[in-house]
User: Fold these one by one.
Assistant:
Number 1:
Amino acid sequence: MSNRTFTMIKPDAMKNGHAGAILDRFIKEGFRVVALKQTKLSEEKAGEFYAIHRERPFYGELVSFMSSGVIVAAILEKANAVADFRTLIGATDPAKAAEGTIRKQFANSVGENAVHGSDSDENAAIEGAFFFSGLEQY
Ligand code: CMP
């Protein structure tokens, strides 16, 4: 079990001014920030990041949304990081997300769902390395 996960604060949450509140929540829940940056994905880069979903019907919509505005990307550290972070953010569809979760509080829809969280230790490492070099991780 690795102690790191990767997250993005998505364009909807950025546009709605929730980045500060969401980062504050990560930290208050015990996640240490290992790396952090604001950036914008080109359509090409968003397509590459979500290549695993290429065959899904929502792929085009996902790529277009994720490249529609700035995002915040971060690597976070805590014991049991991947599973605990997914509990903190809640179900992919905010209508199904538990009370007290970040998506329940800040997400609009299954597509525009405020935050991303890695679904496995392996993907956390791949996704973190997509945005950050080893020298950017402290
Ligand atoms: P995320 O955890 O970032 O990884 C894949 C994303 O695809 C997911 O969050 C959702 O934002 C998006 N997604 C999943 N299901 C759907 C859907 N039915 N329609 C649109 N987007 C979706």
Note: The mean pLDDT is 97.
Number 2:
Amino acid sequence: RLRSVVCGDGAYLPERILTNNDIAGLVETSDEWIVQRTGIRARHIAADGETTSMLAVRAAQAALADAGLAADDIDLIICATSTPDFTFPATATQVQAELGITHGVAFDLQAVCSGFVFALATADKFLTSGSHRRALVIGAETFSRLLDWSDRTTCVLFGDGAGAVVLEAREASGTTHDRGILTTHLRSDGRHRQKLFVDGGPGSTRTVGHLRMEGREVFRHAVGMITDVIEDAFRATGFTAQDIDWFVPHQANKRIIDASAQKLGIAPEKVVITVDRHGNTSAASIPLALAVARADGRIKRGDLVLLEAMGGGFTWGSALVRW
Ligand code: ACO
């Protein structure tokens, strides 16, 4: 029996930081409003010419170094992104080329803010089937390029960045004490697709377009969807909220995170929060938060780590990992 074990993680943030006060110089808003409604204080913004694949490569290199592996050891690359450098080819193939890998397979996965959880679940199925041995799972985004910087209801919420983990297929006994991905649960419901979308693309305006969102509607559905899919993870493994060492949710909004943790009964000190510094980095937010909590010593080997995300589509999902 094979299990997908996390053996390295890494992240990369663009240098430039945009504070709430900086945004208050662009649109009618305030630091107080943004902090109170979202918990966001600052976000990183990619420089001109700094693309999603560039951020992804930096995060992938950091994850490989952390795992003590060479690029050549990787035979599967999945890049979760909604902000690819080009419509095609996939950003993952650019990462593959930059890392000098010429074997194996690389592809993108598009599930917006849920992208990292979807990519992790997909890689897990490849690795536990025995078809591939070591995967780079990357979440990388430059949402700053999709924003309408004159729309205060959306431009204050997002940021740029990338994070990655290395997974390795290892023999396991098959209990929940084994390290690795224990269970994943994914959902989508396309009836909600117009509540959060980008109004451009080859099939519509033939431009990149801008992010459009019914913020209240997203908020209204988020907590229920998140807690449902986490309860699926608890049912599948027999764990409860008390067993979780670290809750690393998608970082969209502190109020959504707090309400989800409270509904599930997860203690606030177990919740990893980075939305204050990173804003919502979509598919990158979970691996960025994981890298922070690993680097500061919170997440340790053997810890039970619960991941969840919800985003455009709607898509939503959870993953339970023995670190
Ligand atoms: N600064 C100041 N005022 C603002 C701003 C702003 N940046 N944005 C909106 N307002 C105003 C509105 O115009 C409105 O004014 P009005 O009452 O005069 O019409 C007022 O604030 C209230 O607006 P609401 O949209 O009702 O504010 P709400 O409390 O719902 O907060 C927010 C908006 C923060 C977007 C919230 O709905 C939210 O967080 N939704 C979830 C969306 C989200 O996180 N999306 C991320 C992508 S999906 C995901 O990752 C899960």
Note: The mean pLDDT is 98.
